Amino acid sequence: MRGLFFLWGDRHLESIFISIAAGILFGWLDVFNYKTKKNLNRLSTVALLIMLWCLGAKIGCDEELLRNLGLLGFRSVIMAFGIIAGSLALLWFVTRLFADDIRTEEQEGKA
Amino acid sequence: MIYGIIAAILCGMGCGYLWLTISARPILDEVLLAALAFMVFVAGIEIGSNRHIIKKICNPKGLALMAAIPTSVVIGSIAGGGIAGTLTGMKLEDAVLVSAGLGWYSLSSVVISTMYSVEIGTISFLTNVLRETLSFALIPLVARYNKIMSIGIGGASTMDSTLPVIIKYTDLHTGILGFVNGLVLTLLVPFLLSVLMPK
Fold first, then answer.
1. A23, A78, B11, B91: which could form a disulfide with B41 (CB 3.0–4.6 Å)?
2. How far apart are CA A66 and CA A51, in angstroms?
3. Å from B91 to nearest chain A CA?
């Protein structure tokens, strides 16, 4: 398994897998009470904002990237929207295909 | 929350531009990873403490949906990106290659730059960074209309950075589908890049 993770090393899959596995285990064993979970959720929102700030800072501090942003940015923006639109279009068909199942699940969730 | 998301990214870009140099990158990566690990841990707690959802997903229809989502994201990304890229004057094979990064910018840009062309590698980096960044803003909007469709926006990032956003704006069931989608796509990217790489 170590060798497999190494291939995707720069995505830090190991720490992601360990974190999510630990989270699922802790949740399954019901380690945290309701109040702690609520606080953890708030902290997770803070973590999200910190993460996004860092993501922005990584782009902002890279002058070479910022220069390229103007040069190749146009193509990239069009492509990013095209890619997202394509994914959404096909997923729309999938949701039609599975419409009945999704609806029953949502109703069960509400009940 | 969506304004907070956009404000955090813009504020980061401004601060990075004004006060940070490229040497700050390793530190930013460390903080990014720590914050991400914590968010995924909290997402895991929510998944684990709702066992009935895990049981509900493990049936033939649920598994079929689990396979259908990444399949349509791959086909949709490559078709949509291929069309959009050719419209801007790129070669179709280049546009398809960029789309095959599926949002995983660090891998696809390095692989394309070193094995094929630096220019296409840069476009791949920008396109896939934009895909991930746009996801944070678009997931809450699309989720209001259709939960399953919000999974497709992030591509491979739905297993880590955009997973907490999906769970926040949809529900746990969709979150688990998102995680599986991101995992399958992440495993597919190296394979797709090597198959689609122009000789």
1. A23
2. 20
3. 12
Handedness of CA A60, A15, A18, B125 (dihedral sign): positive
Mean pLDDT value of segment B54-69: 84
pTM for this entry: 0.77
**Residue found under tokens 């094979």:** B93
Quote the minimal CA–CA distance from B199 to chain A in Å.
22
Higher pLDDT, A98 or B143: B143
Cα–Cα distance for residue pair B181/B184, rounded to 1 Å: 5
The total number of structural domains in chain B stands at: 1
Chain A residue with Cα closest to B157 = A11
The answer to whether position B144 is within a domain reads: yes
Domain hosting residue B137, numbered range: 39-196
In-domain check, residue B21? no
Residue for token pair 């401004």: B14
- Closest to B27 measured CA to CA, from A13, A20, B35: B35
Are A28 and B49 in contact (CB < 8 Å)?
Answer: yes
Query: A34-60 and B118-145 are packed helices; what angle lies between their axes, rounded to 10 degrees?
Result: 150
**Residue B33 within any structural domain of the chain:** no
CB B86 within 8 A of CB B92: yes
What are the tens digits of pLDDT across the range A73-83? 889 999 999 99
